[in-house]
Design goal:
The chain contains two helices and no strands. The chain has 73 residues and is mainly α. The chain has one domain. It holds the Pfam family PTA_PTB.
Length: 73
């Protein structure tokens, strides 16, 4: 059992099947925990870039753009 308030959920890329399970998992966490799920957030690239999932809403796109701008410095 977890206690306290979570601030993030991170996972490693392990192939397309694991990625699909990860996407499902964080969407379930979003629905059950009344959280906002964003991602995937890409790190350690030469230039900042992030990905939007098919079917995302405008707010998710704006949040991804804001995170990408922060990554750019």
């Amino acid at each position: 059992m977890l206690a306290g308030h979570g601030t993030g959920l991170a996972g490693e890329e392990m192939g397309s099947e694991a990625n699909a399970y990860g996407n499902i998992g964080y969407k379930i966490a979003e629905c059950l925990g009344e959280l906002t799920a964003l991602g995937p957030i890409l790190k350690e690239l030469a230039k900042p870039a992030n990905d939007l999932l098919r079917g995302c809403i405008v707010g998710e796109g704006l949040a991804a753009a804001a995170i990408t701008a922060l990554q750019a410095g």
